[in-house]
Amino acid sequence: xxxxxxxxxxxxxxxxxxxxxxxxxxxxxxxxxxxxxxxxxxxxxxxxxxxxxxxxxxxxxxxxxxxxxxxxxxxxxxxxxxxxxxxxxxxxxxxxxxxxxxxxxxxxxxxxxxxxxxxxxxxxxxxxxxxxxxxxxxxxxxxxxxxxxxxxxxxxxxxxxxxxxxxxxxxxxxxxxxxxxxxxxxxxxxxxxxxxxxxxxxxxxxxxxxxxxxxxxxxxxxxxxxxxxxxxxxxxxxxxxxx
Length: 243
Ligand SMILES: NC(=O)c1ccc[n+]([C@@H]2O[C@H](COP(=O)([O-])OP(=O)(O)OC[C@H]3O[C@@H](n4cnc5c(N)ncnc54)[C@H](O)[C@@H]3O)[C@@H](O)[C@H]2O)c1
What we know:
This protein is α/β, with parallel strands linked by helices. It has a single domain (7-179, 210-231), classed as NAD(P)-binding Rossmann-like Domain (Rossmann fold), CATH 3.40.50. It has helices at 16-27, 39-49, 61-75, 98-126, 138-141, 147-167, 185-188, 196-202, 211-221; strands at residues 7-11, 31-36, 52-55, 80-83, 129-134, 172-179, 233-236. Helix 3 (61-75) packs parallel to helix 4. The protein binds nicotinamide-adenine-dinucleotide.
């Protein structure tokens, strides 16, 4: 087990890819704090994993700090942060207004920054940390109807590089996993649900992606054995993007 004795925070873990990551990190031996805007969903996943459920909005400075404080209060340490919380939109470019743009950026980019900032001090004090952001292969594909989302995921990749450069000396790595289209509650609730067969035709591995296909890449980057890998984006998309 890769994560025996480790404590991990996973944001956006009430459902979808975040929940599969929480399950995988737990299976690898970690104690898991499950943070989500959906408090009941977070509590249900946490109960199943004998972890800690936290209702929180990652776009709030206070909530981001509280996620880390509650985790430290329960477990006394935090070794791993996985930032999976995000809004997954389907919105034409000419329907994006500034309020929507700001809300999406505040969750998908500010949220990744705020929780990363909050874990930095305890990780620095411990001389060890693994930060893994969930990006998207849509950033490379330029997928339509996702304008603010692509801008936010590009920002997340920039954040990964900044964190890697500035935190490496403290034993902290920062990387991202960029999934391809994946059958999650969030994705299936939008017209993206109609794209799976089209995208499958572009993949090297011809089937629909599941949350469980993404979690093992995250577990590797969350583990001690990935210690020589930082500032990287691992694309987990069945070979859709190849360049
Ligand atoms: N599903 C895909 O096709 C796909 C592809 C590439 C990348 N991703 C990325 O994977 C991650 C998970 O996506 P998913 O498809 O599982 O989405 P999802 O919508 O199924 O789940 C997202 C979770 O994040 C939570 N959340 C949303 N806003 C939040 C906030 N402000 N604070 C805290 N929690 C919040 C939701 O409550 C939900 O539980 C996201 O970062 C997404 O961008 C998804």
